[in-house]
């Protein structure tokens, strides 16, 4: 596999760097979003990402399964909010590299007028943002660049440049994100600040890696990411549940991802909890 990202044209890559300064795509260090793309079988990754990802695979051979389990949960939870709970606006933070079907495609199949704003601080996502902006005719999609670790600024950017009305209910997605926000970056304060700005009747969706089923394995994975320059803090079930404090959890509460409202054909199902190693939950803001 080439070290180039096949879908980035020379013009697009030059444009991305000239707009923000050379080297912004950081091909020299592994990046969590590109590693996740590798786990899913994508080709938007460099040799340095594949090398780091292979270290994770050696420690946790089921990591590719876990990535698919996470993606299936993202789709199921979004469909549920659009289909059953009437949510017509979605704020997806930590979007990562687009992989079809994207969130807006999932929810707009249920509700064509749904509006989705994607948020990420990775310049590689900006290069691919055009695929996130192909909305249904009735709905709308937007992409903004912001960092979840500064929720106040993020919300200001979403209000200014997104396609959402934050005075109305929103489905806030923080999927496979918060394990990259360790406690010393005030992860719980970040979530509280985001949820606090949303209208009553909004929903919070979280998926989060856990060491509960294989602590030694996850200690090794944390070391791989940390050595690559990406802080990683995996959390227990009770720690994940604490992100939902003050909210009304939907059944079945905080659960291992493949056990959360499973649907036929929705991702891997006949696996162990250790192979998933993800806690997930969806909760309503009263």
State the helical fraction: 25-40%
Main CATH class: Alpha Beta
General form:
globular
Structural class per helix/strand content?
Answer: alpha/beta
Given as residue ranges, the uncertain stretches (5+ residues, pLDDT < 50) are 1-22
CATH architecture: 3-Layer(aba) Sandwich
Rg, alpha carbons? 18 Å
The CATH topology is given as: Rossmann fold
Give the CATH superfamily.
Answer: Vaccinia Virus protein VP39
Key phrases:
286 residues; alpha/beta; Rossmann fold; eight-stranded mixed β-sheet; 8 strands; 38% helix
Briefly characterize the structure.
The protein is α/β, with parallel strands linked by helices. It has helices at residues 10-20, 32-39, 47-59, 63-83, 103-110, 123-127, 151-161, 187-196, 215-227, 237-242, 273-276; strands at 89-93, 115-120, 140-145, 171-175, 203-209, 248-249, 255-256, 278-284.
Descriptive overview:
The protein is α/β, with parallel strands linked by helices and 286 residues long. The chain has one domain: 3-Layer(aba) Sandwich (Rossmann fold), CATH 3.40.50.150. 38% of the residues lie in helices and 14% in strands. Helix 4 (63-83) packs parallel to helix 5 (103-110). The longest helix is centred in the N-terminal third of the chain and has 21 residues, at 63-83. Residues 1-22 have low confidence and may be disordered.
